[in-house]
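The records we work with from here on pair a chain with its fold. Here is one such record, which you should read through line by line:
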Amino acid sequence: MQIEKIEVARSYSRKVGLPQYSSVDFFCSAKAEVPWSDREEASDKLYQFCAEQVSDDVIRFTAARQEMTEPPTEPSRPRHYTTRPEESSDPSKPSPKEATLKNAA
C-alpha cells in the first residue's frame, strides 16, 4: 500500500514578557494535505508561514502597546522668562526692595 497523500501540520509560538511578571502568548498553527513526496517542503513552508504570522503579530502588539504607554505629545510652547524688578541685572543700582528699605530708614 503506497501512501498517496499526507496531512502535514506545523505550529509556532512565542511568549513576550510584560511588566509585573505577566506575559502574552502568540500562536499560529497551519496544516495542509500534500502528496507524500512534497511532505518535507510543505512542512518547511508551513513552519515559515507560522513564524512570519507570529512575528507580524508581535510587531503589531508591541507598536500598539508603545502607543498606549507613551504620553501624548503636546506642541512645544516657547517659555517666557521675565526678570522681576527686584532682580535687576545692574549691580550698581539698588533694587526697588533695597531702595524702599533705605528710604524707610
Summary: The chain has two helices and two strands. Residues 39-69 form the longest helix (31 residues). The longest strand covers residues 5-18. The mean pLDDT is 82.
